[in-house]
Design a protein that fits this description.
two-stranded antiparallel ribbon
Length: 174
């Protein structure tokens, strides 16, 4: 049996897509381009205690509060930027801040090669600042989880990877 060689996974091989369709229309996941930062934090919630018959504390993870810190250079006519800017600039509240995001691992292809491993979740856009920098209009903030994570896969229309279609369910890895 041949040994498989370890290959470094590049950051550019994990890409994100946002549903930019109107609330009542079908999902249209557009690639999130122009982002200079998109850091995923799990923020685990712990239950820690020390029992009387133990010298050390015991901890368990009992929940998560996932958040993605983002920053992007604002481009006109970019549907993802338009959607976040509408929330940010309009100081929208509640459900009007919710967006569906699919994160795709381009390094995890199905055995047939046309599907890629993906996760989908609804996030609330939490604006922080805009206007930083002198060369481009920069928006920053965080996306905080509203829903549970959904495992599935995506397919792409065309070879440019600009639009993704998400399907829930098992992922068939190599």
């Amino acid at each position: 049996m041949a040994e498989s060689k370890e290959v470094l996974v590049k950051r550019s091989q994990r890409v994100a897509y946002m549903d930019t369709a109107a609330a009542e229309g079908p999902a249209s996941f557009e690639r999130m381009t122009g982002f200079t930062s998109m850091t995923n934090s799990k923020n685990p919630k712990e239950y820690s205690r020390q029992y009387i018959d133990m010298d050390t504390e015991t901890s368990d993870v009992v929940g998560y509060a996932p958040a993605i810190e983002y920053s992007f250079d604002r481009y006109s006519s970019n549907p993802v930027h338009e959607k976040i800017a509408k929330i940010h600039d309009g100081e929208l509240l509640g459900n009007d801040t919710h967006v569906d995001i699919v994160v795709v691992d381009l390094f995890k292809k199905s055995s047939a090669g046309e599907k890629y491993h993906a996760t989908k979740r609804t996030y609330a856009v939490i604006p922080d600042s805009d206007g930083d920098g002198t060369d481009a209009l920069i928006y920053s903030g965080s996306l905080k989880a509203v829903s549970a994570i959904e495992i599935g896969n995506v397919t792409f229309a065309g070879s440019d990877f600009k639009k993704a279609t998400f399907a829930s369910g098992a992922y068939d890895a190599d």
